[in-house]
Amino acid sequence: MKKLYVFGNEYLQEDSLARIVSNHLHNVELVHCRSPEDLLDVDGEIVILDVVKGITKTIIITDVNQLKTRNIISLHDFDLGFFLKLMESIGEKKTIKIIGIPMIGDSKIIALEVEQCLVMN
Amino acid sequence: MSKESHNLVNKENNDNANKEITLNHITKIEGHAKLDLSIKEGKITKCELSSVEGSRYFEGLVLGRQYFEAHEITSRICGICSSAHVIAAISAIEDALGYTPSKQTTELRKLLTIGERIRSHSTHLYFLALPDYLGYESALAMAPKYKSELKRALALVKAGNNIVRILSGRDLHPVSATVGGWLKLPTQEDLEQLKTELLNVKEEAVKTCELFFTLKCPDIETEGEWFSLKDHNEYALFGGEFCSSKSCFKRTDYKDFIKEYHEPRSTANFVVKSDHRYFVGALARFNNNHAQLSSDAKKLLEQSGIKLPSKNPFHNNIMQAIEIVHCIDHAIKICQELKIKNEPVDKVPLKAGRGVGCLEVPRGTLWHEYILDDKGVITYANIITPTAQNLLNMQEDIKTLVPAILNSKTKEDIVMDVEKLIRSYDPCFSCSAHFLEVNWEEK
After folding, report:
1. Using CB atoms, which residue from B29, B140, B158 is nearest to A86?
2. Residue B350 and residue B99: Cα distance in Å, rounded?
3. Shortest Cα–Cα distance, B200 to chain A (Å)
4. Residue of chain A whose alpha carbon sits nearest to that of B158
5. Which positions in chain A touch B154 (Cβ < 8 Å)?
């Protein structure tokens, strides 16, 4: 069964939708990630589900350079985008696909879109 | 230094005698800090290091709350060292209630803070300090050339993180540790798994030391006295008195010795001991307690060539690197020796009282103090972080460093060395930081 690495913070409304959407998904093994390091030992393709600021419909991101990151100036900047770029820079390039969903929306409808993305994958 | 920069040195040396440097936002530290530095006729006329962090009011937030809420609330002071605040708060509350935790609980608390220290030191050394020494703006910029070093960093961060996660239930803001015990105990298999992971990653910690031994740092001496806990039983984590080479005092008496004072320009308090500045952190711990390091950490200390006691603040990063090895050895020992028993959380009887929690955390000694009424309600709280204790010493060290490099370096290199000095203390002004802006005006 395909694995889906789900990111987000259930306590922050604007960062929780990926976790809510994941509850409506079928035929996929969910891995709820607490930190980017959870991806370190994953071999092969990694499919991530996370919210993306500024989008209104579900998208697929396959190039981590599309992600906006700042230079790390404090440990608090050590986020998923920085981590994925760092992994790529140090040659830990895994095949990464991010299913990006909007921050707000109907979780059931978005879940259907995510399932379509998983089928296309 | 690039050829271009050398040209700048020659052109600008004479101008350095009269300068005004303002670092509005010092980067690659935790939180907001600002430095104002004025130089006239080659002498420093103003040097003010301030925290410009918004006031956090945590000591006020816990007032009127129940005793069991202190650690949950104060954990939010910082994600990087949330375990440290949790254990300091719990220790202080238990002290106030006259309760002594079981050996198992104490060992698990030690293991939790050790995990956090491995994670904190590894991230600080590789992602904040190392780019300075290698001449890169950030870890991401150095990644193409230093792949194996950054892989090593991630392996160490992960090892520390796993300890925190397995013991406390979460990566940040632990939930298992509580007043009177441990809400969800790790299994013996958990400890076995951690031991295996730590044994696997130890070589990476040793290589970290070897890397940091090769880095060149300025040769200066701080005039501040060093302080750390000193425990006769082990390399101090929780136990013992607060000591320098000259004196020790009991943690409960800390207010008789340590004074906090406020400068209007800074939202962090300054702290002095008997009106004198002092410093805390890995270097202070090594100066006091190096005889209690693990045998491999001792060997690495010898290999470093640094003679202790050292008063060079730049050595703090090297001691942090060696401390990772010691922490891994200590964690392995706990995982090996601790036999997990089913211990329900003790119901601690309430009584009015005052308690002080004091422990060694990544950046130095952390103090929490609470006063409880007879219903367990918090009526007073005081928290002193390592960075507050180091703030005055950092500022005064800048006054030592700048004259030593004023005539030989460009303004960019002086700024870089000042920032390196500040970062060598691994300060945590708190929870965010912004880009560096430098205003350099000739007087």
Report:
1. B140
2. 10
3. 14
4. A37
5. 37, 40, 86
Structural domain of A8: 3-120
Domains held by chain A: number: 1
**Tens place of pLDDT per residue across chain B (443 aa):** 333 333 233 334 445 666 676 666 655 555 667 788 888 887 888 888 877 665 668 888 999 999 999 999 999 888 788 999 999 999 999 999 999 999 999 999 999 999 999 999 999 999 989 998 998 888 888 988 999 999 999 999 999 999 999 999 888 888 999 999 999 999 999 999 999 999 999 999 999 999 999 999 889 999 989 999 999 999 999 999 999 988 999 999 999 998 887 777 666 677 888 788 999 999 999 999 999 999 999 999 999 999 999 999 999 999 999 999 999 999 999 999 999 999 999 999 999 999 999 999 999 999 999 999 999 999 999 999 898 899 899 999 999 999 888 888 888 888 888 888 988 998 876 432 222 233 334 34
- The domain spans of chain B are 58-389
pTM score, two decimals?
0.88
* CB contacts, 8 Å: B124 with chain A: 75
Domain CATH number, residue A61: 3.40.50.1450
By C-alpha distance, the chain B residue nearest A33 is: B171
Interchain contact, B140 vs A72, CB within 8 Å: yes
Q: Which residues of B touch A91 (CB under 8 A)?
A: 147
Own/partner long-range contacts of B393-396 (Cβ < 8 Å, ≥24 apart): B393/B222, B393/B224, B393/B277, B393/B278, B393/B279, B393/B313, B393/B425, B394/B49, B394/B313, B394/B421, B394/B422, B394/B425, B394/B427, B395/B47, B395/B48, B395/B49, B396/B47, B396/B222, B396/B223, B396/B224, B396/B277
Compare all CA atoms of chain B with the CA of A74 and give the residue at the minimum distance.
Answer: B28
Q: Which CATH architecture has domain B58-389?
A: Orthogonal Bundle (1.10)
- Its ipTM equals 0.79
